[in-house]
Amino acid sequence: MIDYFALALGHGLMAIALLRLVLRDDLDGDPLLARLKADTAANRSATSSAGRSAARRAREARGEETGQADDGAPGR
Question: How far apart, in whole angstroms, are the C-alpha atoms of residue 44 and residue 6?
């Protein structure tokens, strides 16, 4: 009898924990994706390639990541 109770209690608590994790609202949102979408929208709103380059240089000056891998090549 005690074995069934212990099994039911353990599995019931795990089911409750799983249910609480699945129902969290912040589980579906990724802040990095939101920032990337905003950067993309800002770049698309620039009318010329010079405007997009200026926006990219401004982000790099603020120290934000551009999402491109740096190969360490000089002169870039």
Answer: 59
Q: pLDDT of 7-47, one tens digit each?
A: 999 999 999 999 999 898 877 777 888 888 887 877 777 66
Cα gap 36→73, rounded to integer Å: 25
- Please tell me the distance from the alpha carbon of residue 38 to that of residue 40, in angstroms, as a whole number: 5
| Chain Cα centroid distance, residue 7 | 37
Task: Name, in order, each residue with C-beta under 8 angstroms of 54's C-beta and a sequence gap of 6 or more.
Answer: 46
Q: How far is CA 54 from CA 2, 19, 24, 26, 59, in A?
A: 70, 47, 39, 34, 9
Q: How far apart are CA 19 and CA 17, in angstroms?
A: 5
Say what the pTM is: 0.40
